[in-house]
Amino acid sequence: MQSIVKLYQVKARPPSLADNTGDLDRLKKVTAGVLEGQNPVVAFSRIAPVAEAFRQSGFQGFAVVAHYASGPQLIDFYAKKPEFLVGMALDLGTTHLEASLVNLLNGKVLVRAAEVNGQLEFGADILARIHFAATKAGNRNGLDLLQERVIESIHKLAAELTRQIKIRTSDIVALSVSGNTTMVHFLLKQNPYHLCREPYIPVVNAPDPFQAYELGLDLHPASIVWVMPSIGSYFGGDLISGILASGLDQQDKTCMLIDVGTNAEVVVGNRDWLIACAGAAGPALEGGVARMGMRADIGAIEHCTIDPESGKFEYQTIGGTPARGICGSGVIDLVAGLYLARIIDIRGKFRPQQPQAKGRIIEQKDGFAYVLVSAEEAHGANPVLLSQVDIDALMRSKAAMYSILTTITNQVGVSFKDLHHIYVAGAFGKHISPRQAIVLGMLPDLSLEVYRPLGNSSLAGAEMMLIDASARERCLEVVGKITYVELNVNQEFMIRFSGSRFIPHTDHALFPSVPFYGES
Amino acid sequence: MQSIVKLYQVKARPPSLADNTGDLDRLKKVTAGVLEGQNPVVAFSRIAPVAEAFRQSGFQGFAVVAHYASGPQLIDFYAKKPEFLVGMALDLGTTHLEASLVNLLNGKVLVRAAEVNGQLEFGADILARIHFAATKAGNRNGLDLLQERVIESIHKLAAELTRQIKIRTSDIVALSVSGNTTMVHFLLKQNPYHLCREPYIPVVNAPDPFQAYELGLDLHPASIVWVMPSIGSYFGGDLISGILASGLDQQDKTCMLIDVGTNAEVVVGNRDWLIACAGAAGPALEGGVARMGMRADIGAIEHCTIDPESGKFEYQTIGGTPARGICGSGVIDLVAGLYLARIIDIRGKFRPQQPQAKGRIIEQKDGFAYVLVSAEEAHGANPVLLSQVDIDALMRSKAAMYSILTTITNQVGVSFKDLHHIYVAGAFGKHISPRQAIVLGMLPDLSLEVYRPLGNSSLAGAEMMLIDASARERCLEVVGKITYVELNVNQEFMIRFSGSRFIPHTDHALFPSVPFYGES
Predict the structure, then answer these.
(1) Contact, A143 vs A56, CB < 8 A?
(2) Cα–Cα–Cα angle for A358, A362, A368, nearest 5°?
(3) B15, A199: Cβ pair inside 8 Å?
(4) Which CATH architecture does the domain made up of B5-78 adopt?
(5) pLDDT at B520 over 50
(6) CATH homologous superfamily of domain B86-227?
(7) Would you tell me which residues 54-93 of chain A have a C-beta closer than 8 angstroms to some C-beta of chain B?
(8) Which of the four, A75, A346, B49, B85, has the lowest number of CB atoms within 10 Å?
């Protein structure tokens, strides 16, 4: 374990007429001794506080050293060894931030929390916020406000986390940030203009670490801020985190990593090579897009079943509370169930005459819809429906997903059967049933053992950066090693996409385990 | 020549769908190529401006790289090669600042200027300002004001210098500062409290380089600020500059360096060893202390002679203007002349009955005085006198100086005759006649060939730092190599001091070239 910030116990001889070197020089000298001759640097802003703390401590105690790639930096001095030396890991999500505090002395995660991204007010999705960044709001510009808002959210998280373990936010001496490229640009107040315009170029992929005060972060002012590098506009540090957390870059056997949000990002590889792509998977799997859709949160229908014989519908919500909507995993379960009960056909179109649909199908202005929770059952809350429009969106998403997976594996001459594991990241990985996704033809028809949910690997990667020097080196190796394939400009992709817009697929042989109702 | 900031011509392939790395990462990559694989770092504050300048320049042009000890830092990007790449060298004196602009492309000094240190308002000497630093002035504290004032003086100098060569202050990409330890503390806003209290410990001797904006300096914001390291409270970076400028640390033969202000600082050594000491030389040689004394400035009597036979007095002023006062070199000439004309005795006391003094000696409340410029000659301006009190002060100063020189050479077992050169720094070195100083017994009785004036070696050292990487390494070697002897705690010194309070010395054999009038 090599934490990004470490304590080194040092003891200097006190100054005397015979030894009248400066306080800071004295500290640097003894610290260089315990750092095996590496001379630590002291940033200008830290000269006075570090020298003063050293003197106040009687010229002995604990040097607080941040390990930058360019060398060690002395950032503070403690008279006594603290119980915790705390780093904050941050998953900088578009809708939510998740963070944890890690004890850098032993690598243990102390506490975790989540917070809504305060930028939501300025745009629900990335493109809306990029647009907002370029606008003026009063005498402020949008980019300033976006940065200000996300920093407020980070401060809220830091306050909540530190409150739980009874420390001050100024005790946080390191921050590692993992997020998509756009969110990182907003945090660093970098112009996002070219991120969404061909050829989609970030201002910076791998910013050098810096001090928290430079960003206006209210942590320890010299807290080292370490930002997970990105590969490009559509392949951010959150994905690099996923690679590190899954260990994809260290596996002997070829594996795949899937992360699904508005975009689907996919990495295939092993210790020798890594290939990645990102493609628009469609919004159907994200909360707030299907009319009744929502994030995987309290009250969301997370899983549901339809008995293929009787058509009996049953569901569970997250937290067991009354249903408020349906999240991505619920939609996948539902549409798979509708197909197996033949309530929809292979194109995903409603068959309202199907007996199993009895009492569940209603007709609206824009087509049929399936009633999950009726107005009566909802007791005054909104009923929960899934409309033909929602299913059409899912069909496009699942087709895009399968096409992406086929394209990238083809690109490297790997077949799905060669994949030792498929890691599924994020909320999507945590909640979906791979079996139902296979029925839909969204994921390849492989043994369920192959599929591994990763949880919040963006946060896990950020945590690794705080405590593991080899992981910090690995992430730069990964960035250097990875080959990025731009899917949007790939002709093959559109052909594959067309073939995937059926349940499970036009080529039924690809999904031997799934009943085929093409004759209907 | 290895300037501290250099230009590197680079050309990157423009971004494309097939090569979508970030702007800054692209620039860092091509720059690492011309830096022989060293990866340049970009400070947080420079991400946006450097990336933007690179893009605006069409991804080709000149990378501006500051060479820190910890590695190269990319600080800016120019589309075209500028005529000058400008560094500012600064001698941070207690009363005056002197500065020059150096073209870092070829090492040439472009222009020089001087400016009064704006801190004078808060105290004429170092101790007064250290006291002021700890006081409150309204709702400001003294240290803040001292820093603010010296920064204003630096800004004035920068404005004046850049005006002369028609560039902007923001074109200054490097600043090297050479000054005494206290002035450096004020500039960096470091607490000077312990500098003047036993055991006289600085907050910092060798601050790591930093960016101009961190200090609030209105130069290029990422201008690298390089501060000449000091050895202790009484041996500052200005002296290290003197060692570098004289080349004392590279000489085969043993040499000596003398710098005289309120303190006399002396270094003896060669390429193998260096020993240094500083001692109170008394204020007689500094401007403004002898009642008629002044700095070596326009109107100061710089040199004068008294014919030993006739007593005829003649003088020259700096600038040839009417005499306003007398500077240190003039005082030395005068007192030597008074001795040779026997107008004073070996103790430095006036002999008013001496014929050569006729018409020149007046009696005042506190004793006799010699009239250099009478009220009549002064045409309404103040007459210029040198009183017994002034001469007594000079006698103490010259005794201190000679005792310091004897003590330090004794310490290392070197006799004056072994000294290949004696470098005399600063205004003192520039203006004094070594011969007259020898007559007084202030400097050893050696061939005049041995004495070498150094000029403003503090500024010269600062200039070297800007353009010579080996000199930047040398200065750290010097700091590591030098042995500092604290004179104030040396018993021997007081014995020597007593013997030196006569002209030229109680031991006349030490000054064979000087007439001895001990029998008078």
Answers:
(1) no
(2) 110
(3) yes
(4) Roll (3.10)
(5) no
(6) Domain of unknown function (DUF4445) (3.30.420.480)
(7) 69-71
(8) B49
